[in-house]
Specification:
Layout: E1 14-18, E2 25-29, E3 32-33, E4 43-44, E5 53-55, E6 67-70, H1 76-84, E7 88-91, E8 104-108, E9 129-131, H2 138-141, H3 143-157, E10 168-171, H4 175-184, E11 189-193, E12 204-206, E13 219-224, E14 230-231, E15 234-247, E16 250-262, H5 277-280, H6 284-287
Parallel strand pairs: 2-5, 6-7, 6-8, 8-9
Antiparallel strand pairs: 1-2, 3-4, 10-13, 11-12, 11-13, 14-15, 15-16
């Protein structure tokens, strides 16, 4: 993000000092840091709400003009962090900003749900607006479009390179196909996902065709892996974070750190427990409701669910 600032960047952008209250080392950082890439404006540097970090100088006032678009009722950790780091949060469920913002920047963390009504209209953005989105991201963000594009790539480049995603049935259009497949594979589990939702909403594991909702709304159905990798007998997933600076040519930078999320009940493929999402799903939004959930109070420590 390009902001005018009245201080110079040094090679070492942070220094450490001890807090007068608890004598813990405090790392001082600047709100912006130089980009690692040539001809790219500075990056915003965040500090956590809880932790031994503080700004060397106050964030530039211009950062208040940067809207952070988030879904309604964001988690308090997001709102507190945004406020501490100098942003203005705008809570909304529908993108309505393209034609109204003349300059500044938009940090858009809204989900890409509907191609026609919820995708960013880039042709309406003023040339002075910066945004953290690429055109046509719904082609990857929606589960149905993701498999459609995956299938096209598999057809073009072969199954040897594209064998990492299970076949996805699109309902209601392929309802008869999935019914036939489930009848032929009665011991299988299946996972149902709405193509355009998030945080585990609408996802469930089933083992019977009668458990598939008979609705006009779209659903994705995939074969479920019944023998997943486990840690301490718990199902888990790994989140790997990347920075995409270019699509053509594709340029992706992999972050050194990631995130592990855990289910909160020991794994079993007992058909009687197929509907227990605390066993089969690792979404934070679901498992935080479990009595076994362990909250992570310090992002620097490897603990919690």
């Amino acid at each position: 993000m390009g902001f005018d600032v009245d201080y110079d960047y040094e090679d070492d952008l942070s220094d450490r000092e001890e807090s007068e209250c608890n004598h813990e080392p405090v790392t001082k950082v600047y709100p912006l840091r130089p980009s690692l890439f040539s001809n790219v404006p500075p990056y915003v540097q965040f500090i956590p709400v809880k932790g031994s970090y503080a700004f060397e100088v106050d964030p530039p006032e211009e950062m208040r003009e940067m809207l952070w678009m988030v879904p309604s009722a964001p988690w308090y950790t997001i709102s507190n962090c945004a406020d501490l780091n100098g942003f203005t949060i705008s809570e909304t469920r529908i993108r309505q900003f393209e034609g109204t913002i003349r300059s500044g920047a938009i940090w858009d963390s809204l989900p890409i749900t509907e191609k026609n009504t919820d995708a960013v209209e880039f042709n309406k953005l003023n040339e002075m607006v910066k945004i953290n989105q690429f055109p046509a991201m719904h082609e990857l963000g929606r589960k149905d479009r993701l498999f459609h594009n995956y299938a096209d790539m598999r057809k073009k480049f072969g199954r040897k390179e594209f064998d990492f995603m299970p076949h996805t049935y699109m309902l209601p259009a392929e309802r008869k196909k999935i019914a036939k497949n489930m009848a032929m594979n009665r011991d299988n589990f299946w996972i149902i996902k709405p193509p355009n939702l998030f945080c585990g909403m609408g996802i469930k594991v089933i083992n019977s065709f009668k458990d598939i909702p008979n609705k006009k709304s779209q659903l994705c159905v995939q074969s479920y892996i019944k023998n997943p990798f486990l840690i301490n007998n718990l199902k888990f997933d790994l989140r790997v974070y990347v920075l995409i600076t270019s699509v053509d040519p594709l340029r992706v930078y992999l972050y050194d750190e990631g995130l592990t999320r855990f289910a909160t009940e020991e794994y079993t493929n007992d058909p009687e427990k197929v509907g227990n999402n605390f066993i089969h799903l690792t979404n934070f939004s679901i498992n935080k409701e479990s009595e076994n959930f362990v909250n992570n109070s310090n992002p620097e420590e490897p603990e919690g669910s």
